Amino acid sequence: MKVCSTATFADAKEEPNVGATEDSQAATKSESKEDPTALFKLSYGLFVLTAKDGSRDNGCIINTAVQVASDPTRLVIACQNHTLTREMVAKTGAFNVSALTEQVPFEVIRHFGMQTGKLTDKFKDFTAKNRAANGIFYITEHTNAFFSARVTDAIDLGSHTLFIGEVTESQVLGDAPSCTYAHYHAAIKPKK
Predict the structure, then answer these.
(1) Class of residue 174 by CB neighbours under 10 A (exposed 0-12, middle 13-18, buried 19+)
(2) Which of 39, 48, 40 shows the shortest CA–CA distance to 114?
(3) Domain ranges of the chain
(4) pTM for the structure as a whole
């Protein structure tokens, strides 16, 4: 597995802000009109990313899993850097992604996304699971497909790592529509 850093862009022949001073770059950043809620308009899904290291299994919620090539089939996923699942994927070079459906209950999202695997065995009492050929669990309820992948590249993005994986197995598990991040916010996430 090759790990790249974002610094490799600086080595490119055409750099952004060529000739800009540190003061002018800082001024540009502080003048930014970025609205973080605009990101909610991008289309995301909700997925359970799973990994296995030795006898330990873990999983977390991610919102980025995209097919980026077809021959061979490759997926790209993004995972927060502080998670145990990310550490396991980086170490073992393998992962599974289960696509959640619109019918997924909040409890599944809370189970995989709102507690750390560093302190909790997320699969101890969780029964809606099977092992794929790669030995990693995938989720069998409230999902419509799963993908197994072997990591071919990884890019550290600061807060997240982008993993590119070659698909080694995939299966359709149902016909229910995939859950988008927008649907999660509108219909699944509890209102305050």
Answers:
(1) middle
(2) 48
(3) 43-188
(4) 0.82
Cα–Cα distance, 172 to 140 (Å, whole number): 10
Q: What is the largest CA-CA distance in the chain?
A: 58
- Over residues 87-117, the pLDDT tens digits come to 999 999 999 999 999 999 999 999 999 999 9
Picking from 122, 130, 126, the residue whose alpha carbon sits closest to that of residue 58 is: 122
145: β partners: 99, 172
Looking at the chain, the number of H-run helices and the number of E-run strands are: 4, 10
pLDDT in tens, 157-174: 999 999 999 999 999 999
Q: Which of 31, 32, 18, 152 is nearest to 95 (CA)?
A: 152
Say if residues 158 and 75 touch (Cβ distance below 8 Å): no
Helix (H) or strand (E) holding 76: strand 73-80
CATH topology of domain 43-188: Pnp Oxidase; Chain A (2.30.110)
Report which of 127, 129, 108, 125 is spatially closest to residue 47, judged by C-alpha positions. 108
CB 47 within 8 A of CB 62: yes
**Which tokens go with 24?**
């002018």
Amino acid found at 179: C
Tokens of 23: 């003061």
The answer to whether the Cα torsion of 7, 12, 13, 18 is positive or negative is negative
